[in-house]
Amino acid sequence: MNIKQILEKTASEVPQKEAIILGSQRITYRELEEASNKTANALIGLRLEKGDHVAILISHSPEWVINYFGVIKAGGVAVLLSSMLKAPELDSLLRDSDAKILLTEKKFSQMLSAVLSGIPLLRPVLEVDGDSYKTMAAGSSAASPDVDIDDVDEATIIYTSGVLGKQKGVVHTHASLSGPLSIISAGIERGKEDVIIDTVPFFYLFGLGEVLLGSVIKGCTVVIIPQFTPRACLEVIQKERGSILFGVPAIHNALAMLRDEVIKSYDLSSLKVGSTAGAKSSPRLMKMLEDKFNLTLCETYGLSELFVVSMSTLDNHKLGTVGKPICDLKVIDDGGKEVTQGEIGEAVFKVPWVMKEYYKAPDLTAQVLKDGWFYTGDLVRMDEDGYLEYVEKKSFIIVTSSGLKISPWEVEEVLLRHPGVAEAAYVGVKDVRGGQIPTAFIVLKGRQSATAEEMSSFCCQNLADFKLPKKFEFVGSIPKTGSGKIDRQRLKGGMQF
């Protein structure tokens, strides 16, 4: 089933069911189907041809969803751009993507005004909150456009710096995006009666695939939280009777740290599942979340190139792991040989829903895709019960001068045990001699105070000497990537934030 058919089928089965909610904005599946058809026909009217690239730079909103499905139905390839990026970064991605149309909002087109005219292939820039776009869409047909779409057709390009450390466009087909949807939903027992609370942007594959497409195919209602705060999240869960909460570990950590009296002031009895992905989570905090909210926390593991490859399920999960693989997996050493169970090695997957390629980068594609196996660059460990533990990206492992290896997560987990610490990141920051200084970046909880000496003493009690941070930096926030992960590259470079 292709993505166009996913929405069409659900809209025909539950036309009056609410599909997307944001505040007072409520859109049914019939309205989503018709609005996206109008967008598709408007794009075709602008001479969009099948296979043309259309960039989407829109806030986390129902309009994003309408325009994404509109591009797909017109036969286009949706290029997903992060709304967190700055003009020079977006300029680079728009040029690389060969997008012919940009669907955006006034605030973003104003930010990009100095660079848009110099992008060669880009024709119209359509502001979805502008009068001309609204008039054009309103005057278009609400009938499904007559465009043949095959499962093997390209559907979406998602930019990521994940595996090889540089921005590249991950090309997904309709088949690779829809492939694991039924497996994911079965694992968390998602059904049409569920109300999904979404904190994950749709330009991230976790948000697009697991949250949006996985919910649309089941006929669920998706409630968008555009700017997460713990209290805003609890208010939405209570108001909309949310049953499944999707978020990166930082979201769940913030909720787990709430005081009991705050949580008990809301009616959260509808909430049954928390689903997390995008970074390594803390078993201690996830256990706190389960206990405080009376829910089951399911962790999934995937990449922009692979979608989901391992996941916990409601009836088979183990905190501290990403569940069990749902496809073929090898864990290999630096020489390419499989390690014994329980040892750490690189995860290599063979999966039917792997990306098609990196856009215009055959050499990079060949580096990670070999004989059908995808080399992730991620270090993992398979435990004695067959559960997969994510350790860290190979490139982020800190190597001491004596050759000992430290996983940042080991140190961060200890730092988060300190009662005054809200967030922590541990990286090797470049020094003037080209070496690395193991540095802990710490965000303190409100009204809490701590000194570097106190934190050093705390770490000495809980960590081996070779793992101890050499420096502590107290900061107001820790930079994150668009997917909610700690931006370790930025921290490693010693950049200001």
Present the secondary structure layout.
Layout: H1 3-13, E1 18-22, E2 25-28, H2 29-45, E3 53-57, H3 62-73, E4 77-80, H4 87-97, E5 101-104, H5 106-111, H6 113-116, E6 125-127, H7 131-138, E7 154-160, E8 168-173, H8 174-178, H9 181-187, E9 195-198, H10 205-216, E10 221-224, H11 230-240, E11 244-247, H12 249-256, H13 260-264, E12 273-276, H14 283-293, E13 296-303, E14 307-311, E15 324-325, E16 328-332, E17 344-350, E18 357-358, H15 362-368, E19 369-370, E20 373-382, E21 388-393, E22 398-399, E23 405-406, H16 408-415, E24 421-430, E25 436-444, H17 452-462, E26 471-474, H18 488-492
Parallel strand pairs: 1-10, 3-4, 3-5, 4-7, 5-6, 9-10, 9-11, 11-12, 12-13, 25-26
Antiparallel strand pairs: 1-2, 7-8, 8-18, 13-14, 14-15, 16-17, 17-20, 19-20, 20-21, 22-23, 24-25
Helix pairs in contact: 1-2, 2-3, 9-10, 12-14
For the sheet with most strands, the description reads: 9 strands, mixed
- CATH architecture name of the largest domain: 3-Layer(aba) Sandwich
Quick one: CATH superfamily of the largest domain? ANL, N-terminal domain
The pLDDT mean sits at: 93
Strand order of the largest sheet: 2-1-10-9-11-12-13-14-15
How much of the sequence lies in strands comes to: 25-35%
| Residue windows where pLDDT falls under 50 for at least 5 positions | none
CATH class annotation of the largest domain: Alpha Beta
CATH topology of the largest domain: Rossmann fold
Task: List the total number of helices.
Answer: 18
> SS-based structural class?
alpha/beta
Distance between the termini: 44 Å
* Estimated radius of gyration: 23 Å
Portion of residues within helices: 25-40%
The tally of strands reads 26
